[in-house]
Amino acid sequence: MSESKQLTCEKFGQLMAILGAAIGVIGAILIVVKNSIKQAGELSGIWKEMYDLPWFILLLGILIVIMGAIRWRKYAGDKNSVIDTSAKAVKNFLLNNGIILALILMVIGIMIAEHRFMQGRVLVDILAQASPRMIIALGICFTLLIAGTDLSACRMVGLAAVISASMLQNPDYTNRFFPDLPQLPVFVPIIIAIGVCMLFGLLNGFLVAKFDMHPFIATLAVQVIIYGACSLYFDLPPNNSQPIGGIRSDFTWIGQKRFFQDELSAINGIPILIPIALVFIVVIWFVLNKTVFGKNVYAIGGNREAAVVSGINVFKTILGIFVLASALYGVGGVLEAARTAGATNNYGVGYELDAIAACVVGGVSLNGGVGKVSGIIIGVLIFTIIQYGLQFIGINAMWQQVIKGIIIAVAVALDLSKYRRK
After folding, report:
1. Could you read off the pLDDT of 301-310 as tens digits, one per residue?
2. Where are the alpha helices (DSSP H) in 257-362?
């Protein structure tokens, strides 16, 4: 056996910081040179085709510096924490992160195929599109962490969108869902929509926790119930299954408002959806890492029998998981209705599969007990970039579905192979 080469975590952090600084300097130099050429005359050739790539390089460098500095500080003076750099360790790293590396290469390929993809406004649009999906994925990750799933997520998104939109139409809109409904404060329909979703989440949790029903079956049954109930509601006269429109501006503000739109005209402002998603990311990170409930979630997913023996109330925890997840689906549905200024009973179709795939790509194990918020963020962003990029370069919608299916199959296969090795 060959001797393993090892690198201390402190040294690795230093190398990351140095590498990030070098990348950042390259990006800064490219920015300065490009601006100088632009001031001297019109950009042409490679400088014109570069678009905002120098800024992306600079931001990437800053991100790597921050990650390296955090690791450097965390392991400062610790000579026992090491990183195995042997061939076997490298092979395991490539296997564990193969799908992410492949998707990154696909993104680079999209950038090469269509240079306009390297624009700041494209990145901002991707982040805005990913924000509601991020919140939905954060909800579904709780069910995956206990080795379950939630197929009802998509229908809860549609239900929340329909309920909130139906109560927040302009008073003078000719085809109001509730013609005689007074103008309610915007937060009231939002709370109602999320609350209804939480009731169905409670039903999911009860079926799973009380009857030990497999989450796949329980949430599939509830999914059908929700879709039927939502369709009945959507078909109420005088709406009669017509798309809900004429949404009030104080509601669409939540999904369409952009900050700094004048000052940052190059990227057309920062959509409010991005900071909203960031707030939920921080909250869910705190719940999973700093609360007893979060630790119980990981414990149940790792070994349910051991969790019961250790005194964890599995019944209440599972109920809490599905209720919390459904609340996040409801938020995602409300944001989708506000973003698109409308709703139908088919909103959210396929969102649960995208969320599950993004979580698995980001390292959340289908076998439970393993997963981080940071991985979910990476998974959702990469998945959204791929979808947006394929549309951007004009790939046929049918081929997009094929590619998405391949990504899901490969991600799950890699996750199962990691579990078998362990």
Report:
1. 999 999 999 9
2. 273-290, 292-302, 304-309, 314-340, 351-361
Place of tokens 């990750």: 141
- Which CA distances in Å does 316 have to 311, 370, 371? 12, 21, 21
The 3-state secondary structure of 55-71, one letter per residue: HHHHHHHHHHHHHHHHH
First to last CA, the chain: 21
| pLDDT one-digit tens code per residue, 356-393 | 988 988 889 888 999 999 989 988 988 888 888 888 88
Q: Residue 244, SS3?
A: strand
Phi, psi of 169 (to 5 degrees): -95, 155
Ramachandran bin of 364, using left for φ above 0, alpha for ψ from -120 to 50, beta for the remaining angles = beta
Residue 187 has a CB neighbour count (10 Å cut-off) of 10
Alpha-carbon distance of 229 to 345, in angstroms, equals 10
Residue 370's contacts (CB-CB under 8 Å, 6 or more residues apart) are 145, 301, 363, 364
Report how far residue 293's alpha carbon sits from residue 321's, in angstroms, rounded to the nearest whole number.
9
pTM for the structure as a whole: 0.90
SS (HEC) of 177-218: CCCCCCCCCCHHHHHHHHHHHHHHHHHHHHHHHHHCCCHHHH
163 φ, ψ (degrees, to nearest 5): -65, -50
Rounded Cα–Cα distance for residues 115 and 291 (Å)? 45
Question: How many CB atoms neighbour CB 402 within 10 A?
Answer: 11
Contact yes or no for 146/318 (Cβ under 8 A): yes
Separation of CA 397 from chain center: 22
CA dihedral 237, 238, 239, 242 (to 10 degrees): 110
Per-residue 3-state assignment (H helix, E strand, C coil) for 139-173:
HHHHHHHCCCCCCCHHHHHHHHHHHHHHCCECCCC
Strands (E), 42-124: 82-84
